[in-house]
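Instructor's aside before we start: the two examples that follow are unrelated to each other. I chose them only because their records fit on one page, so don't look for a connection. First example below.
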Amino acid sequence: GSPLNKINTDYIYIEPNGGAINLGAGTLALTNATIRDYTVSGLGGGIYVKDGTAILPDIKLLNNKAGYGGAIAVDANERTENIDVTIGYDVANPDSILQALNYSHSDCPQISGNIADEEGGAIYYNANEKTSFKIYCLNEENNTANGEFAFHESDFIKTTGKEGIFLLEPKHDN
């Protein structure tokens, strides 16, 4: 099928994981999308990935709330086949799916105003050897983790698990 590029986020939908999107397999490519004002009790206020590929070159994840990962959560386990999440756009190695869509990158993603009741105000990343999470450019601000054991550093991202790949390119838009 064709990639999803618009999401109606005019309501709050309460589910344990993934307020707007719960990705369990396949490939999701979101361009020019905003996911705003979702609340879940579990993981990933905006997006929850338990398997599959998520390509998010210019996503806006705004004012979402979850127990873990206010904006987005990746949660690998022993049944995970492959998780590959990309936020931003790798100019040096453009994604073939985005090329097929004639995608033209202009804005870096924005993740702001998200809240985790526990850890990972913006992102919660539970990794294993079958996961990768890459961020190429990002505007990130005002994300908060409120958990008793959440340190200030987890306002942006909380990483846990083992052997996963996490790539954060040093150049960010401010």
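Example two begins here.
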Amino acid sequence: QAFDCALNPGAPATQVFYVVAATAPPSITFPEATHEYRVVNHVLGGIVQAGTVAVRMDGVVVATSGPVGAGISDVPLPGLADGWHEVSAQLDPDGIGLVSNWSEPVRFKIDTVAPGALQDLTPTPGSVLPDGTVQVAGKAEAGSTFVIQVDSAVPQTVPAGDGGAFSLALTGLT
């Protein structure tokens, strides 16, 4: 009930009841953010109480678990196309619609295509190299890693940058 400055009572207030759902959303533990995978066919998430877990992939609910206990929930997913995806999850602990918020989305990439051959290699394959240090450079699939080995030397793992360029100094050549 409200009162004005002179303490005149207003109309009686209507009682309003609110239900606060204090259910924590699942925390997605797989897939991991910004990682690349060949296949992701399930989502793993930690949940703090029993219930049903819904999984949203790229903004669309694609899977719902059966009732699960507190702990780890494993929800199967449909096949995913190559490219970047976002997954989030929601917990319904009681089946009457008092659901958690959606979890923070996890962004990951599906990549089923093998990288192409290295390009623009210098020095060119088959070249006679001088003793000492030689700079090897070229271009590969952006973000990929590969191995360079000269004769019986220790193999070197080389990352390609965002644009695909790479460079490696080979030392101790004889």
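Residues 133 and 171 are 4 Å apart (CA to CA).
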